[in-house]
Design goal:
It is a single chain. The protein is globular and about 50 Å long. It folds into two domains: 67 residues; 131 residues, Rossmann fold, CATH 3.40.50.1970. The strands form two sheets. The chain has a five-stranded parallel sheet, with helices on both faces. The protein has a four-stranded mixed sheet with strand order 1-2-4-3, sandwiched between helices. By secondary structure, the chain is an alpha/beta fold. β7, α8 and β8 form a beta-alpha-beta unit. It starts with 11 loop residues before the first helix and ends in a 5-residue tail after the last helix. The protein is 35% helix and 20% strand.
């Protein structure tokens, strides 16, 4: 690597309340290893996102040994992990099992920041009873991250049933007309349920960071 190829922002948490993370997609093994080695020197804990299993397996063993890797979400915790400081504040509601990789990316992002979220999975509106059976539980959470692909109807239905802050994440799950998540994105942006916040397609990380910004104004030191 050449000098200056990366400049890590270790002061980001002090400045804006969110740790810098490492987006691994598009980075080489050498670049990721260099970032982790730099973090190791100052004993910094990092969140790595979009880290494919093959890429993780190619990292030097000494770096892999310091990482907690979660294959489904393609995330890893490297080095020290913050202790849980908050529970019972965030629910992540996923429409289908196929949406859980994005849901887990959100959950892992929150956990790295010390927030333990609750995952409610496979409650899409094609079987509405699955959602209504758990709606009283879901209503207890001040912040809800709704994750859905295909027609993303979960966002509108759930948005009409709860008073919580709702952060919606369209996923790229679905057949041809779903257009790799663009249909879900448009549906969430066009929802008749008022006040929904919508993130980019498959951006569980971004949804979790939005939740953290809200929590930072409430309870997180």
């Amino acid at each position: 690597m050449t000098d200056g190829e990366f400049i890590f922002d270790y002061a980001r948490r002090q400045r804006m309340g969110l740790d810098e993370s490492v987006f691994c997609d598009g980075k080489s093994i050498e670049q990721i290893a260099a970032i982790l080695t730099d973090a190791e020197k100052v004993d910094a804990g990092l969140l790595l996102t979009r880290l494919d299993a093959s890429l993780f397996a190619s990292l030097p063993e000494k770096l892999r040994d310091r990482a907690d890797y979660h294959a489904l979400s393609r995330t890893a915790f490297f080095g020290p992990v913050r202790a849980v400081a908050s529970t019972g504040m965030v629910a992540i509601v996923a429409a289908g099992t196929s949406d859980t990789p994005v849901a887990y990316e959100a959950a892992r992002t929150l956990r790295h920041a010390g927030v333990e979220a609750t995952l409610v999975a496979d409650v899409g509106v094609a079987g509405l009873w699955r959602l209504t059976n758990r709606i009283e539980e879901i209503r207890r959470y001040p912040i809800i991250i709704a994750v859905a692909g295909m027609d993303a109807a979960l966002a509108s239905v759930l948005g009409g049933l709860v008073s919580s802050v709702m952060i919606c994440v369209p996923t790229s799950v679905g057949y041809g007309a779903a257009d790799h998540g663009r249909t879900a994105l448009g549906a969430m942006l066009s929802s008749c349920a008022s006040g929904l916040t919508v993130c980019n397609i498959d951006n569980g990380y971004g949804a979790a960071c939005a939740a953290l910004r809200i929590l930072n104004t409430m309870i997180i030191p």
